[in-house]
Each structure stands twice: as C-alpha cells, then as structure tokens.
Description:
single chain; Rossmann fold; five-stranded parallel β-sheet; 7 helices
Amino acid sequence: MEQGTNKNAIILLSGGLDSATCVAEAQAVGFNVHALSFRYGQRHSIELDAAVRVADHFGITNHRIIDIDLRQFGGSALTADIDVPKAHDVDNLAEGIPITYVPARNTIFLSYALAWGEVLPATDFFIGVNALDYSGYPDCRPAFIEAFEAMANLGTQAGVEGDGCIKIHTPLANMTKAQIITRGEALGVNYGLTISCYDPDNTGAACGSCDSCLLRKKGFAEAGVVDPTLYIDIS
C-alpha cells in the first residue's frame, strides 16, 4: 500500500472486525485517520458503540456518526421486519445475494465520505470490503470499487482539479477472514472491542449463527486466535 504520511484519510468504520483492521492498516502507513459511521436504521445499531470504542482505541479524534434512515426503503433483514437468516455452520450459508444485503448501502456510505473528503480535504478513502470470506454482497466486489473510484474522479472538484487523485483503498479485498485477523493482531487491533453480529441481543451479545457471526468464528478458528466475542448462551 502507498505511504500516506500526514495525509488525511476517511475510513468507513462500522465497528466490525474488518473496518477496525482497516484503521490499523491506514495508520500503519502514516495516514491521518478520520472515521465515518452511520446510524441508518440497522437492527444491529449496537455496532455504533463498537465503532466508538475502536475510534477511541486508535486515538481517532474526528469520528462522525451520520443519521440516515434506510428503513424508509427496507428490503433487507437489517432494515425491515424480516428475520435474519441463521445457519449451523459456515458451509450452510445461502447461495446468491442474501436478504441481509442493504440496497446500495456502500454506494450511499462512500458518497457521504466523498462529500466530507471535499471539505477536510481528503482524497484517500478506506473501506473494509472483502471478496473471499464474505456474504456475497454486490457492493463488496472489486468491480464495484473500481467503478465508484472512477465516478468519484469524474464527479467531484477534488477529482477533476486533482487529475484523478481520489483513491478508494481496499486493503482486505483479497484476504480471508483468518488472514485479516492475523494481520490485525500484528498491528495491535483489539478485536474484543468489535462486533460483527447482524442480530445481537440487547446486551450486545452476538447471536453466533448469522452469516457474519459464522464467518467471524471461522476466521478466528483458522487463524488459531482465541475469539474474544461474547456470544449468546443458547445451551
């Protein structure tokens, strides 16, 4: 990854495992990190508490939490009255795009980041998308990121006057969850601060059986790292 000494970078910080690792990656190469999170009507809004913990852990002093309401559209188990799918193991995840996909979510989030970047200024943006151990969301694919970056350089003052200077960084794109965890451990990420669950209880305990929980469990097991996640006791 290119060096970012003293350059501003905006990171989409969900409070999950991947975005926390992105913060560590950006800081490791010298970026001055600003964090952007969203309260978008998600059923797992407790992730925002985790985002605050992660930002504090990394000493991020400029962390914005933006309120938008994607429940107005619904269409996802995360923003509508639709049950979050559960499975017994990661090999039984549903094929295709799952109902936990939030329509155009990354497009919306990255657009907000671009707007903030024009003001800061910042032309470097980090997002923790992954194309290996992931749930199959279309806006996590490299083709989407490349297209968004091209659009950003055509549709912003920074892109037009900066001669294609806007860069969307996806340092985790080609890594398995185990590789991400191993890398994060080396960079000092405290994964006990994060939450990945789509359907936690009101105490913040993870369900342990949604797609995101299963992928997280698989990652820790394959990395040989103790999973610090608090899961709901269903025994």
